[in-house]
Amino acid sequence: MRPTSRRSFLALGACVTAFAAGCGRGSGGGEVTTLRYQGSVGQVTLPELAADLGYLGDLRLDWVGNTISGPQDIQSAATGQVDFGGAFNGAVIKLAANKAPITSVISYYGSDQDSYTGYFVPESSPLRTVADLPGANAKVGMNTLGAHAEAILDIALERAGITGDTAAKVERLALPPVNTEQALRQGQIQVAALTGILRDKATAAGGLRRLFADIDLLGPFSAGTYVMTKRFLQENPTTAATFVTAVGKALDWTHTTPREQVIARMRTIVAGRGRSEDASALSYWKSFGVAQPGGLIRDRDFQVWIDWLGRRRDIEPGSVKPGDLYANQYNKTGQAPR
């Protein structure tokens, strides 16, 4: 999906190679003190929250635009247009398998009872189980193809014994998240994959029924990570540690702070950044869904998606190992994996 509200992106032609990290930023002149990133309309990312809480110290964030696509975000990080990007771990695996020199440094979203990806149908829909989808040639709307929502749909179909040509009868459609609920209610799609604030806002309006959810299949789990290039990490280890630790502390802050205070803080952030956004959806925020304290990463956060991608032949089975994809060494929150 193409990002919106983009400004001041660096030209890719300035990079020596397709995967140059930041076009040499930070080399020969000390570590960088400003990190370029993409945001999300009407929402507050963990780095933005960390900055507002003062956890970044002298490290500054430079917003270069918004995106609705995780794969696009991490591709921008890999090519040096931004200094970090976040995506579903399956997308991270695919990019790394294609030799992009990236490393996941912290989990930033996941699924729990408060924050999950649910697959919704209208209350009047004849669809009752996943097994009903192929017979109805159901169209399933989701934010990005080849990412979290499609992976969970595939896993749900597989567990229902639906594979191959039968599973292919279920059509996947990429839609902007803000339009997915409307497409479902107008009958343009039969199932909508909804998550976070947009999911809660849609269900609060009534008339929808949850068909299944990712937590029904996998339980609580961390699903997406922020990545940086290996070159950036090599040239800016202190900056990376400051960033990762600040994001981890912000995540932990949301776990220990009353929800109303978190939402109030987010509203203040959105109001103060002057992007002409509607912040009403923040009222529905509940959690970032990250399973591990401090956003620490575990092998299991990647293995389920490595297996999924291998079954799809998107990667060669056995070609990627979880331990090659991430590093917790920049996370100084003092937390321990559980």
What does this structure look like?
- This protein is of the alpha/beta class.
- It has two domains: 14-112 and 220-324, 3-Layer(aba) Sandwich (D-Maltodextrin-Binding Protein, domain 2); 117-217, Periplasmic binding protein-like II (D-Maltodextrin-Binding Protein, domain 2), CATH 3.40.190.10.
- The chain has twelve helices and ten strands.
- Strand 1, helix 1 and strand 2 form a beta-alpha-beta unit.
- It starts with 33 loop residues before the first strand and ends in a 26-residue tail after the last helix.
- 45% of the residues are buried.
The low-confidence runs, each spanning 5 or more residues with pLDDT under 50, are 1-24
| SS strand fraction | 15-25%
Assign an overall shape.
globular
* CATH architectural name of the largest domain: 3-Layer(aba) Sandwich
| SSE topology string | EHEHEHEEEHHEHEHEHEHHHH
Total domains, how many?
2
CATH superfamily of the largest domain: Periplasmic binding protein-like II
Helicity, as a percent range: 25-40%
Distance from first to last alpha carbon? 35 Å
Return the CATH topology of the largest domain: D-Maltodextrin-Binding Protein, domain 2
**What is the oligomeric state here?**
single chain
Structural class: alpha/beta
What is the class of the largest domain in the CATH system?
Answer: Alpha Beta
Q: How would a textbook summarize the main sheet?
A: 5 strands, mixed
Give average pLDDT, whole number: 89
Radius of gyration: 20 Å
Number of DSSP-assigned strands = 10
**Number of H/I helices:** 12
Strand order of the largest sheet: 7-6-8-5-9
